[in-house]
Q: What sequence folds into this?
């Protein structure tokens, strides 16, 4: 039983996998945090809350405590806790003080859906149990429900919050974070994922300091710059050892993750919608639901935290027919032809792709309106018959006759100033009346918070999808939001636009994926600018980065793997010199790096030499052999490219009978020292054979002695498959 209520001590004990999370209702009023960590068999805590010599007492009849020294589950503003609150409500009289107290609770099997929001799920109610803590502010009749779900088979607690206005006045939410965890010490390092376009999700680890550290986005998307994830690490935590507490927000817009160390060396972690430029008006009888935070505890280092997220997100976040299937091996036309599209060239590329064993042909940007470059036609979603005289239907049918699936690129949220749509509806953009609109990539952002805008975009997309045998869609978004306002909303609701935008995006994608369940959708935002759990709920894979250089991808994919499974990472073999950094790397290495994700190609295949074509055929066959190890297996990161002159990782099937190992050298060394690669995650007592050789090893040999790494040239690599010897 994952949730136990000790009525005598007013304690809720949530057991999730091998972890425990414990809450006490202090003085029958206040939810306080007691513990999160390794699973406990007993939870009889003595009260250890003390007052402070200079701390205000919130209860005039009880001077024994102050909120400023307590570990709180969902702290408010203004009554003796001076740390940053989890929420804040403005009332009609201008007051921003609330006093929530415990009123009731519910414990039940299963996990509720979040209305209008993505979230992790269960397929049977026996997989998890949920606790609802009902808190009320009697003065303004505000009800707040804290949701906690404990998964039976994962060290996972999910949290979200619902606000319900049961009073007579209009309330304004100023801050509504999804989780708060107070720790009783600050002996942690903070791990987060930062970056930029073409350098997404670089790993940074820094010690905590007194004060507050904020990881956030205010760009209208989760962003290239910061991912909606943080982790607290014990000082001794490594890839394989130590305590790690992960926080991952299932949301695709502005977010904030705050880590605050106070005067008493306690650490407060809060995460949710970024309060910056956010308010939400809650009229009488209305509710507001926050996004979900997925919290993971690991006592076995960063690696086990990552594998927990991977297992959960693969099976209980991603949905649809492609959740458990191999994705078709694709070729994308972007780096092959860019905007220089014509049917003859596309068909020659498709013919070559088919001969090499590729299964899906994706037509990227440039097929619509008069899109000869990036200065026009976004929003004009009709085929350019100058380039495709037989239309998408004709092209799609010819590809189908070749035995290829057909995929198409869209950027539905954007509009070009030079477009028919903008000329007809300039008011349909995100904008502030009278203010100059910033352009980015020569485009504006459509105001999809307006129903008429969503309806028109969906109408055009559906007509295109139904006009041709389309089985894949790449949904792109190539700029952040600026001058954020909606001409359709009153002044008092303008700070709702960022969140309304995200809700509208989810509504649109849900409608399309429901109507066309057979289509494989891939998310994209200038590469990895919206690589987050919110998008993965609707689309099983996301384009990891516009940077396709294999050496750059070592860091990008390593960092992405801290939270996200390989089965969600779009990864392509591209041409050399690489179009982003100009680097020349071996085709073999480009293939191995791309095989560590959702495998495909993005190059002009007709320019390959005969030898390269044979290698491509071998790569495709190898990927067909290893895909299920990569998709279903556990990832073990072996050599960190942020710290070493090489990178290595491996995937191990859950039964530990097979593994796929990849090693990439970065720069060659003259007269290099002797090196070994120690593997991980194997069964120490199984005997393994390296497929294609007669070499045999026991698992404990491979993990403790390792295998020799030969001297290697710049950007050289090797990979092999381990299989249990029967």
A:
């Amino acid at each position: 039983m994952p949730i136990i209520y000790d009525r005598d001590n007013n304690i809720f004990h949530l057991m999730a996998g091998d972890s425990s999370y414990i809450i006490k209702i202090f003085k029958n009023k206040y939810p306080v945090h007691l513990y999160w960590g390794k699973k406990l068999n007993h939870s009889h805590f003595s009260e250890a809350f003390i007052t402070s010599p200079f701390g205000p007492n919130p209860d005039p009849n009880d001077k024994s405590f102050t909120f400023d020294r307590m570990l709180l589950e969902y702290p408010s503003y203004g009554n003796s806790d001076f740390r940053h609150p989890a929420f804040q409500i403005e009332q009609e009289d201008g007051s921003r003080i609330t006093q929530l107290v415990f009123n009731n609770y519910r414990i039940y099997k299963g996990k509720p859906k979040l209305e209008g929001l993505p979230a992790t799920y269960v397929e049977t109610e026996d997989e998890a149990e949920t606790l609802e803590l009902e808190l009320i502010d009697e003065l303004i009749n505000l009800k707040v429900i804290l949701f906690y779900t404990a998964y039976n088979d994962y060290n996972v607690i999910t949290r979200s919050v619902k606000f319900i206005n049961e009073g007579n006045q209009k309330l304004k939410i100023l801050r509504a974070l999804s989780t708060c965890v107070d720790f009783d010490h600050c002996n942690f390092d903070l791990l987060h994922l930062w970056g930029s376009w073409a350098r997404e999700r670089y790993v940074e680890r820094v010690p905590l300091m007194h004060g507050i550290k904020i990881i956030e986005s205010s760009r209208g998307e989760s962003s290239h710059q910061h991912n909606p994830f943080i982790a607290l690490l014990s000082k001794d935590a490594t890839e394989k050892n130590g305590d790690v507490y992960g926080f991952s927000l299932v949301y695709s817009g502005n977010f904030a993750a705050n880590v605050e160390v106070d005067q008493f060396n306690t650490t407060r972690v809060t995460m949710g919608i970024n309060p910056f430029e956010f308010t939400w008006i809650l009229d009488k009888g209305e509710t507001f639901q926050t996004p979900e935070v997925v919290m993971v505890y690991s006592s076995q280092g960063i690696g086990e935290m990552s594998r927990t997220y991977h297992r959960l997100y693969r099976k209980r976040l991603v949905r649809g027919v492609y959740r458990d299937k191999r994705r078709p091996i694709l070729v994308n036309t972007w780096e092959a032809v860019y905007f220089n599209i014509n049917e003859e060239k596309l068909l020659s590329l498709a013919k070559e792709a088919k001969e090499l064993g590729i299964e899906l042909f994706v037509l990227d940007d440039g097929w619509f309106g008069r899109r000869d470059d990036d200065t026009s036609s976004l929003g004009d979603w009709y085929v350019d018959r100058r380039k495709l005289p037989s239309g998408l239907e004709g092209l799609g049918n010819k590809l189908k006759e070749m035995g290829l699936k057909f995929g198409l690129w869209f950027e539905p949220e954007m509009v070009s100033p030079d477009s028919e749509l903008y000329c007809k509806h300039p008011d349909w953009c995100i904008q502030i009346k009278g203010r100059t609109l910033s352009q980015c990539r020569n485009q504006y952002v459509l105001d999809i918070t307006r129903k008429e805008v969503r309806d028109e975009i969906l109408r055009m997309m559906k007509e295109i999808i139904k006009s041709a045998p389309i089985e894949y869609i790449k949904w792109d978004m190539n700029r952040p939001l600026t001058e954020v306002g909606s001409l359709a909303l009153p002044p008092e609701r303008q700070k709702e636009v960022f969140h309304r935008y995200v809700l509208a995006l989810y509504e649109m994608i849900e409608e399309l994926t429901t109507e066309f369940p057979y289509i494989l959708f891939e998310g994209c935002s200038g590469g990895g600018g919206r690589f987050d759990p919110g998008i993965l709920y609707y689309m099983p894979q996301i384009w990891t980065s516009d940077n396709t250089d294999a050496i750059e991808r070592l860091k990008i994919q390593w960092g992405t793997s801290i939270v996200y499974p390989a089965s969600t990472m779009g990864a392509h073999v591209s041409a050399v010199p690489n179009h982003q950094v100009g680097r020349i790397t071996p085709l073999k290495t480009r293939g191995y790096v791309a095989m560590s994700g959702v495998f495909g190609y993005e190059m002009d295949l007709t320019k390959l030499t005969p030898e390269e074509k044979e290698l491509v055929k071998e790569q495709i066959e190898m990927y067909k052999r290893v895909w299920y190890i990569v998709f279903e297996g556990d990832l073990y990161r072996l050599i960190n490219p942020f710290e070493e002159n090489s990178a290595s990782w491996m995937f191990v099937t859950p039964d530990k009978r097979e593994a796929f190992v990849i090693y990439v050298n970065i720069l060659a060394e003259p007269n290099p020292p002797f090196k070994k690669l120690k593997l991980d995650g194997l069964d120490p007592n199984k005997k393994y054979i390296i497929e294609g050789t007669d070499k045999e090893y026991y698992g404990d040999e491979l993990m403790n002695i390792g295998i020799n790494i030969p001297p290697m040239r710049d950007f050289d690599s090797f990979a092999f498959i381990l299989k249990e010897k029967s």
Observations:
- The longest strand covers residues 171-183.
- The two ends are 39 Å apart (CA to CA).
- The longest helix spans residues 610-632.
